[in-house]
Amino acid sequence: MSKKPALWALRWFVSVAGMIAIFCCVGSASQPVGAAPASRMRPIIEHFRADRRSLLKKYALPIAPERATRMKRFYDDELQTLAKLDFDALNQEDRVDYLLLKNHVNSELHQLSIVGKQIDEMKPLLPFAGTIIGLDDSLRRMAPCDPQKEAGQLTEMVRTIAQVRKAEEEGLSVSAKGNAQSGQVAPIRVNKIVANRAVFAVQSLQRALKRQFDFYNGYDPQFTWWVAEPYKQADQALGDYANFLKEKLVGISADDKTTIIGDPVGREALMAELADNMIPYTPEQLISIAKTEMAWSMREMLKASREMGYGDDWHKALEHVKTMHVAPGGQPALIRKLALEGIDFAEKNDLVTIPALAKETWRMDMMSPQRQLVNPFFTGGDIISVSFPTDTMTYDQRMMSMRGNNIPFARATVFHELIPGHYLQEYMTDRYRNYRQVFATPFWSEGNAFYWEMIYWDKGFATTPEERVGMLFWRLHRSARIIFTMSFHLGLWTPKQCVDFLINSVGHEPDNATAEVRRSFDGSVGPLYQCAYMVGALQFRALHKELVDSGKMTNRQFHDAILHENEMPIEMLRAILTGQKLTKDYTTQWKFYGPVAGTN
User: Fold this and answer.
1) Cα distance between residue 365 and residue 382, in whole Å
2) Residues with Cβ < 8 Å from 507, sequence gap 6 or more?
3) Per DSSP, what are the bridge partners of residue 2?
4) If you ran DSSP here, which 8-state letter would residue 454 be given?
5) Which of 43, 380, 483, 595 makes a 20 to 30 Å CA pair with 283?
6) Splitting the chain (600 residues) into consecutive groups of 10 residues, what average pLDDT does each group show?
7) Could you count the other beta carbons within 10 Å of the beta carbon of residue 306?
């Protein structure tokens, strides 16, 4: 899995004025005779990314209303500007870029709406937020500071925090006893999901207040004289309040490493996300697809289990594979060996061009115990981060980590993380059409890396039943990710049910299953991220069948073209590679898996 940031509600923004200016300039630029036409959309997209970066630096507080208002206006203006461009005058690549940009802007508007609703749900828990938002806004606008007034505001804020905390304690009492106590404040009752969201909001507000205090403190003597002590009290109150929310309302103590609190987005948001990623299937249809793929994997797993002498008891076959791990200290040497095997296999089968520098420059480090709480396996990119037990883990934790990172499991995914997977992706996308990285989607990045696991399986990379079990474990795992994440976000499953499903249906170690579910729902990745592995891979497989199996392209040509076009929803990559006719109002329509039963 790639380490690229995946904060699903925060992506790239775009400048209207910059876009118009660049478009006009590019449109009038002359081209050398015989040269390929320059991209008309590239400079527009590059300004898009740069202007977004400027705006996010200026409007840095995520829950501030001014930020949402400014971004919405920005996006609305952008769509109006795009609508005025002459789509028919663009070449195929520019038409694709136009549609990618338009789709991306609409996606950002969807995210603004989703995040806005989440902020509204938190407001009863954050009645003091306006004070900090106002101070942050004044600093952003470089307005003069009134130290005495700020001291009073912070003092009042501490009182407000105490009052809302008391109201929440009363709400807890009502939940426990069934009625409010006479003479107490009006109770505030809120569910754990919203309370957990509020924990992060309070921490964000606390950082914003510190930023404002640090700006003036020690420089303006009046500010320090008036504000230093009220700030100290306010900072303490915010920290205590965040801990109170987490421990009392959410129910997670400081040393709790097992409880998982997710934030299901609901079907409407899932449908919007799927449309934004150009996936023309519903959540229910994706679950149906996953079950079909899971059934295939299980049939192959049973074949391997029988070859190993365990009959249809595939759990026993899996247990045997888990004992095939190296001794403590031996994992780095194993990973290096497997990385070289993966590179050699790609080159011997003439699958993709691998530059010599790419083979030379990948690196490795060891993952911290804290990171392993949310990622029990390795991650990839320019650095492959290796999970394996450390001396701070308990005996049970060490055994689970070694068993979960055994040799057949690792052999099946090292090339996914490095070459021809994530490292080759990052190497090539840094060098070819890198302006398109703004359209990054896990359906391309994770889907392509997992697609390589499918190709390696088809080409016979696994030569023993144990190695096939290793590859099939991950294939089951990627199908299971669709089922448990979609079921959770649809409100059908709890995190505990998700963990149990991974243990029973895939064969995960309990701690590893818990870490997998925690990572899926802790906000570090979006609601579609985990399903993107299998779904994206199926898209690449369908495109491979259309272009390679038909004889129109060789494997090397196809895989090189994927990397040279850079990241984007795969349906748009298909449009480029097939020369598909596109219209200005094009929407997703590629049924890459064929008709699927389920809710439409």
Assistant:
1) 11
2) 314, 315, 318, 473, 476
3) 380
4) H
5) 380
6) 43 34 37 58 91 91 94 91 93 96 95 93 96 96 95 98 93 66 70 92 97 95 97 98 93 74 91 96 97 97 98 96 88 91 98 97 78 61 73 77 86 93 96 95 97 98 97 96 97 95 92 88 89 98 98 98 97 97 95 87
7) 15
